[in-house]
């Protein structure tokens, strides 16, 4: 980013909006840039006024209009850092302030001055969006985080780290700002007397949750916990080492991701969790509903922040649950939300197409027909999967998994017969039937049995009966457009026949 800033300044850009939550780190870089390009540096905030960083003089200017007037009087070749100036340009900005800022930008271009608007987000009115170029500072990488760790080790000489422990700590701090990393490492020392990666991960989860966009899903699920879906699971297993150094040396590109759609309750979310376990990487869940903000530019800023955070933590799985809720209305976006959905959708598509980072996207959807066709085109996702109602064999597997999950032995039940009588039920419904049977058995002070389950089923109405038409519509849409997550029964039979003939 330092090199990019230098290029923009030397090219004569008069206005740059720098988006970053790390004010101190960005200001340190700007100070270095000013020295390298031979410019003076002034810094302003509404509380401190205008500071000349070269001679240390301060002008007590607290009004944003007055600081623009002061900038006009500064000599040529100057960088002017404006902290939180975007707050004066958000909703319903003062038109006089906007006009003055445009005038100062035009004059600054001829006087070799660059105004740097620093804030944690970029909110510019339409009148300024073409006048100011937005730059998003990426979260710190290893080279920025390593000095933080070294500094804490110097202040705590009693701590001795092995090279492997050092690597684990640096890995754990990825995705945090330098201040967050320092705080988390220091907290670990206070709590345990040493630096523990588990505490760093805990604090990182808290930090991600605060912005409301991303959260670390800290509930690892083995791929064995997913009943059925043999084709999808086999596809994942072939790629489980795709993020390794060996795969990179071999020339394999990092896998982009997959879209999983189908009947509600058939294990799409469980598959997303299991995918992270297969790759042995963290799982980030993006709340697509929270992407959209009411302020101008907030949605695009939220999306950039989510992508930036995921790439900083990479390798990682990024789970977009019910993606159709975010992008289904992108076609009519110009009439409904001023084009916000369309711009966010376009940014997401571009990132999916061009990304080289080790971020594996798992998108799940129920109403896939609402998604724009551009999202389903090859090159965005590596594969599009359709998850149908479980077949007989899958239901047997699901029954065994659920019975064992709640501390019972599957061999004590006739899972084959249970699978037959639960035809048309989803995996989630089978789990609910089992839980209800446990409740009944608990009231009777006994253990659940095949008979208990049978009594529950007599009153159970499955989703396949309530939404039969919708499920058939999904099947018709998926035919020829998506790959079935489960090997079709006809295909299995034909394979068996060909094996016998070959024998």
Automatic annotation (TrEMBL):
The keyword S-adenosyl-L-methionine does not apply. Residues 254-391 form the AAA+ ATPase domain. Coiled coil: none annotated. SUPFAM superfamilies: P-loop containing nucleoside triphosphate hydrolases (SSF52540). Belongs to the AAA ATPase family. Highly divergent. Keywords: ATP-binding, Nucleotide-binding. InterPro entries: AAA+_ATPase, AAA_domain_protein, AAA_lid_3, ATPase_AAA_core, P-loop_NTPase. The keyword ATP-binding applies. Pfam families: AAA, AAA_lid_3. GO terms for molecular function: ATP binding; ATP hydrolysis activity. This is Uncharacterized AAA domain-containing protein ycf46.
């Amino acid at each position: 980013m330092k090199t990019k800033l230098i290029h923009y300044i030397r090219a004569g850009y008069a206005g740059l909006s720098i988006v970053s939550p790390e004010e101190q780190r960005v200001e340190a870089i700007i100070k270095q840039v000013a020295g390298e390009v031979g410019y003076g540096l002034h810094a302003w905030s509404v509380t401190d006024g205008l500071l000349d960083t070269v001679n240390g003089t301060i002008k007590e200017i607290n009004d944003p209009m007055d600081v623009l007037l002061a900038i006009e009087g500064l000599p040529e070749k100057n960088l002017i850092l404006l902290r939180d100036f975007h707050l004066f340009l958000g909703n319903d900005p003062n038109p006089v302030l906007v006009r003055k800022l445009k005038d100062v930008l035009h004059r600054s271009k001829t006087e070799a001055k660059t105004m740097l608007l620093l804030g944690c987000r970029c909110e510019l009115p339409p009148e300024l969006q073409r006048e100011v170029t937005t730059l998003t500072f990426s979260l710190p990488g290893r080279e920025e985080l390593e000095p933080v760790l070294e500094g804490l080790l110097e202040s705590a000489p009693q701590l001795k780290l092995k090279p492997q422990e050092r690597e684990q700590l640096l890995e754990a701090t990825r995705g945090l700002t330098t201040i967050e990393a320092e705080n988390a490492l220091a907290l670990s020392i206070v709590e345990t007397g040493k630096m523990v990666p588990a505490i760093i991960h805990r604090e990182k989860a808290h930090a991600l949750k605060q912005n409301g966009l991303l959260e670390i899903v800290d509930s690892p699920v083995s791929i064995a916990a997913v009943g059925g879906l043999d084709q999808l699971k086999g596809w994942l297993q072939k790629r489980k080492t795709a993020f390794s150094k060996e795969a990179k040396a071999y020339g394999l590109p990092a896998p982009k991701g997959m879209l999983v759609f189908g009947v509600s309750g058939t294990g799409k979310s469980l598959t997303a969790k299991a995918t992270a376990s297969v790759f042995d990487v963290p799982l980030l869940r993006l709340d697509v509903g929270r992407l959209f903000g009411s302020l101008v530019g907030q949605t695009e800023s939220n999306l950039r922040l989510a992508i930036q955070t995921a790439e900083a933590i990479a390798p990682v799985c990024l789970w977009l649950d019910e993606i159709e809720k975010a992008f289904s209305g992108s076609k009519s976006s110009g009439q409904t939300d001023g084009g916000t959905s369309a711009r966010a959708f376009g940014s997401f598509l571009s990132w999916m197409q061009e990304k080289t980072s080790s971020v594996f996207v798992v998108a799940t959807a129920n109403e896939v027909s609402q998604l724009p066709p551009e999202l389903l085109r090859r090159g965005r996702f590596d594969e599009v999967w359709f998850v149908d109602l479980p077949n007989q064999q899958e239901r047997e597997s699901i029954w065994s998994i659920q019975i064992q999950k709640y501390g019972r032995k599957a061999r004590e039940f006739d899972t084959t017969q249970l699978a037959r009588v639960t035809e048309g039920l989803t995996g989630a419904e089978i789990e609910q039937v089992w839980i209800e049977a446990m409740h009944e058995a608990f009231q009777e002070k006994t253990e659940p049995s095949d008979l208990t389950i049978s009594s529950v089923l007599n009153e159970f109405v499955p989703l396949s009966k309530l939404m039969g038409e919708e499920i058939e519509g999904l099947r018709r849409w998926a035919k020829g457009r998506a790959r079935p997550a489960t090997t079709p029964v006809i295909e299995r039979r034909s394979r068996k026949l060909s094996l016998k003939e070959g024998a």
